[in-house]
Write a structure and sequence with these properties.
This protein has 2 domains: 56 residues; 121 residues, Lipocalin. The chain contains 3 helices and 14 strands. The protein has 192 residues and is of the alpha+beta class. A hairpin with a 5-residue loop joins strand 9 and strand 10.
């Protein structure tokens, strides 16, 4: 490979050649092609690295949910205990007051019970790690971590009847949100 310096030709491997020697035009042209190829390779390498970093920084988890799929452990945390609703947000509005005075239990046999002022409402509940089907908006739902409540008897029970995504479950708190992305519905039970 040759480089021209004023009237001298420099060879990378051979050193300086006598003044007046002429550079091979083909070799100079090849040098430009190699420089262009090196630039293209550096650009390609940079794009590959940036693409890899972009993909690696993406995460399947969109809300940092504590989605434990061990349903038996989750059920053991909540069964046989008395719960109250400490927060109920529906369509962005705090409607917790609708559940003031209610006590809830989740029985070992899948029986859901709500009591208030001498009235009792029953239904069913389940935690499913293999729930697939259609959510309440008619959209196909394949979330594998659902808390499903079905109860009737009054407006409050109708509001609770839903298939919720589990945000977290502990021995003192159950946090759920609606699986339908068009709704803003969040439900928090606290242990009494």
């Amino acid at each position: 490979m040759y480089y021209s310096r004023s009237s001298m030709v420099y060879s990378r491997w051979e050193g300086f050649v006598l003044p007046g020697a002429k550079a091979d035009v083909t070799l100079l042209h090849q040098t430009k092609n190699i420089t262009l190829k090196n630039t293209a390779m550096k650009t390609l390498a940079t794009l590959l690295i940036l693409g890899s970093l972009t993909i690696a920084s993406c995460s399947k988890s969109d809300d940092s949910l504590s989605n434990t799929t061990d349903t038996s452990a989750q059920k053991n945390e909540i069964q046989g205990k008395t719960w109250t609703i400490s927060s109920y947000i529906d369509k962005g509005k705090d409607e917790t007051y609708h559940f003031s005075g209610y006590n809830f239990t989740f029985g070992e046999n899948g029986i859901f019970s709500a009591t208030t002022s001498g009235s009792e409402f029953t239904g069913s509940w389940s935690i499913s790690s293999n729930h697939t089907g259609f959510d309440d908006s008619g959209n196909h739902s394949s979330n594998s971590n659902k808390f499903i409540i079905t109860a009737t008897g009054n407006d409050q029970m109708d509001e609770l009847s839903d298939d919720f995504m589990i945000v977290s479950i502990s021995s003192s708190e159950i946090i759920l949100k609606d699986d339908n992305p068009t709704k803003v519905k969040e439900l928090k039970f606290s242990r009494k």
